[in-house]
Write the structure tokens for this entry.
Amino acid sequence: MNLKERFMRRLEGKDVDMTPVGCTTTYGIVELMRKCGAERPAADTDPETMAALAIAGHTIAGFEWVKAMGWDIVPVSEVLGCTLGKPTIDHPYHIEEHPLADSLDGLAYPEGLFEKGRFPAFEEQFRILKDKLGDEVAVFGESEGPWTAACNLVGTETFMKWTMKSPDQVAKVLEVTAAVVIDVINWAFDQGADYYCIAEPSSSPALMSPKFWQKLVQPMLTDVVKKAKGPVVLHICANTDKLIPFMCQTGVAGISIEEKADLKAAVQVAHQYGVKVFGNVATATTLFMGSPEDCYQEAIKSLENGTDFLTPGCGVAPNAPLENVLQLVKARNAF
């Protein structure tokens, strides 16, 4: 079987010959950019450069599937009106201002959504990737989810306060952000995406309790996943141990978790729901600051704990050594 067949069979719960290795979040690694000549800021805006970096993740870093839609998780927030800070080679686009911090008067579904922001560039990047990779390597799209987009529009602290004091305001914002995210996901599938990753860092247990996650985030994401044209993977940062059942109950095909979560336990719970697990070599510590041997051993541990897809636990830090990242495929091959 080729790499795409192996990836999709594993995501569908079918037998494969070995565990796929890759990254289901972002991998805007400076050393990788320089090796392939695809550096920020062009790697965030120019389709050819974006595609070159995506493919370099496969040909140089050893990842067995590739990412479309740039190297940050703010494209939805951008078209909804958030001001972005300019990227540098070691820092992606990021939220600089929250346009709805003082009033929801500007809240609206964007007209001509896919003509705005970087979506025209993303469309061309998808075309290039599909032309060059064909049916050999899986391609995925990624963006922030509705909850994180809402926090970006309003400000995380304010939005979290609204969950207690102004639930009607929360619902009003989520109605728009969820509608946009659903359309973005399905647009990505129309461009040829094989699956889609929703990143919801602003819904992590570091910011809200599992009780509120189940009440506010789970129903919204369940509706998003139900309306998606293809398989969805959900990534949430921090220690998600208490969220794992709720994440799986949204109907996603896979969950992506950090090293702070108990991978072995997560696999046991997720498999009861027919959900696959992506993870979870530490990005902020091991891959960024550890030795190649540290990375190799942690990758082996993830495999021993039953990960379905061997990946970094989150987006790879821009200044992580490429040699550290290469230990993932080395460990899989040895395992």
Remarks:
- The two ends are 19 Å apart (CA to CA).
- The beta strands are 65-67, 83-85, 94-97, 138-144, 195-199, 232-236, 254-257, 276-281, 309-312.
- The CA atoms of residues 115 and 212 lie 35 Å apart.
- The chain has a mean pLDDT of 97.
